[in-house]
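Good morning N.,

You mentioned wanting to compare the apo and holo forms, so I went ahead and generated the holo version with glycine. This is what I fed in:
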Amino acid sequence: MTTTIPVAGGAFAPYEVVVGRGLLKAAGAEVAALKPTRAFIVSDETVAAIHGETVRASLAAEGLATGLVTVPAGEASKSFEQLEAVLDRLLAEGLDRKSMVVALGGGVVGDLAGLAAALFMRGIDFVQVPTTLLAQVDSSVGGKTAIDTPRGKNLIGAFHQPRRVLADIEALATLPMRQVRSGWAEVLKHGLICDAAFFDWLGNEGAAGAQGDPDALERAVIRSVEIKAQIVGEDEKEAGRRALLNLGHTFGHALEAELAFGETLTHGEAVALGCAMAFRYSAQQGLCAASEAERAEAGIRAAGLPTRLSDVEHTFAADALIARMAGDKKAEGGRLTLILARAVGDVFTDKNVDAEAVRAFLIEEGAA
Ligand code: NAD
Ligand code: GLY
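and this is what came out, ligand included:
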């Protein structure tokens, strides 16, 4: 059984996200139906070793000429160097304008392979085969592709929507549990943004998903993709509503940056903590009831994710966090943009947040 979710709207060609089991084995038929001249897999070394042969054999069984290029696993592969290596390999293999890139992996592979597809011969089609929970519920949907530079994350990229997304719940069985929990933070974020009933389910009956239960995971992925697809369909280029997907990310990114993007906090853990902080700040400012901030925190904690600065073994300096939140610009007396909450399932963008008020809040939260 699979579930198909349409992504449509704006200026891009509509496509579908397929969620279900056994989709890695069915990738050949799914890709062949799009009638490319050939298909070429881009993956990372870890994912290729586990799932590469399943997908390659499935493509070959459909008579598609295929091949595989890998990059080292990890964020460092979102670089000019790896982008050039992938593009060079696609050229060396003789791919043409009707060839298809198959991005097999997590968000790193999806972002890198998607950008390579956007650039190759001014843009060829690609299919996303996300193998992390984060990639299934977030990065594979919506067409944002990018690499990092030493000056910052995701600064070089393109909007390039995939032709199809194949989210195989079975692929998540090999994912380390910390990665599952990290992806779960983005699932929780979708509930917090616009579906209170879904959020409450995630914190109660659905909580087994954060521990890898495939039934709960499947339901969580489906509802998450529905929410992301709707938002992206309304606002592909983030002119308005898509910014709501940044809930928890301004606080979270500042925490990650202060920890030099190391192992102390994964991106998802930082987002989870950032969401809890955004709700508490909203309550402190009288924008939402304190009970709503407690409800948000309880749902996040049910997954074993952090909600308090004291959950992290590090002393954060309020001034340094504010500087990060302001994009390293001088923030004194300045204004910040934050996604704030009226209630669970009801958030909004505030582009006029007083940096001094946030600084006082951070000190209350335990920052020095
Ligand atoms: P990732 O791609 O680095 O994957 C995490 C780790 O899990 C890697 O070591 C990978 O090799 C391994 N892995 C992947 N699938 C596996 C599997 N099934 N079994 C075992 N191991 C597996 O990280 P991620 O969390 O998936 O993605 C993070 C990236 O996504 C960041 O670069 C971020 O900027 C990007 N992102 C992009 C968007 C977007 O809209 N484009 C949205 C959110 C995040
Ligand atoms: N992950 C945020 C976005 O896709 O817009």
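Confidence is low (pLDDT under 50) at residues 328-332.

Happy to go through it together on a call whenever suits you.

Best,
F.
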